[in-house]
Structures are given as structure tokens and as C-alpha cells.
């Protein structure tokens, strides 16, 4: 394995584990799975009550939105906390390829966003009887992938603003 690929995979995995090392699995489930589950259920039942759209509108929108939330907030924390914990200066001083370093740090957040969105669709299938047409599944998968990658990139941009700004989490919430 070349050095850049090693930095990409190993560095990204270690960085992701270090970011969430303090968090318990129960907290991850409540934050990344529980909250989105209730968001999907709330808006779907609200939409049913209001009668404005069918369930698929709310399920697809919220399942894609939870992937976006995961990417933006996670990547913002990942980059901004490098500065806060004092690991950014040594990271930038290494001779490793910076594209490999920061792309590797983005990969776990992309995978997490895909997982959370798949969880949202799966729970909607189980609890809300959501059955997308067979022809629309590849389009849904592509939409989730593009949304997740672009939101992770936006989170990286917001996190990099944290190199100069004091509180980037306010900007991530806008």
C-alpha cells in the first residue's frame, strides 16, 4: 500500500475514532439514529394529518436531510477540533500528502451519512410501509451519495473557517 493510501485509510479511521472516543455507543444511537427516526416519524405523521403530500415526500426529504446533517456537523467538528485540541499544527507539519490526510478524514463521515440515511429509509420501510418504486432506488441512492459528499465538503469548509474563527459551530447551525 502506498504511503498516501495508508494515510488516507488509517489516518481517517483513527481520526474518526478519536473524535468519538469520548462518546458512548448509546449516545451515538440516540444522536445519529434516534433523533432522525423521530424526525421522520413526526414529519410524516404531520404530513398525513395536513394532507399536503404523500408519505414518500416526507420520508425521502428527511432521510436525505439526516445524511446532510451528519456530514456537515461531523466534518465541522472533525476539522475544528484539530485546532482546539492542538493537533492541527503537528498535522500540518508532517510531510504527508494533505489531500490524502483531509480526504481520509472525510471518508468516515461520508460512510456515516450513507449509513444514517439507509437507516432512515429502512425504518420507514418497516414502520411507515414506505416502498419506493424499483426504478427509483438507484436515483435515491445517487441523491443520497451526492448530498452526503457535498455536505461533508461543506462541513470541511466550515471547519476550516475554524482555523481563524473562534466558534464555528454557530456557523454550522446556520
Structure described in brief:
This protein has 174 residues and is an all-alpha fold. It has helices at residues 3-19, 25-50, 55-84, 88-93, 98-127, 137-161, 169-173.
Residues in helix, % = over 70%
How much is the radius of gyration in Å?
18 Å
Number of domains: 1
Give, in order, the helices and strands. Answer: HHHHHHH
Strand pairing plus helix content: what structural class? mainly alpha
Number of strands: 0
Number of helices: 7
Shape: elongated
Tell me what portion of residues adopts beta-strand conformation.
under 5%
Largest β-sheet summary: none
SSE layout and pairing:
Layout: H1 3-19, H2 25-50, H3 55-84, H4 88-93, H5 98-127, H6 137-161, H7 169-173
Helix pairs in contact: 1-5, 2-3, 2-5, 3-5, 3-6, 5-6
Explain this structure:
The protein has 174 residues and is mostly helical. It has one domain. 80% of the residues lie in helices and 0% in strands. It is built from 7 helices and no strands.
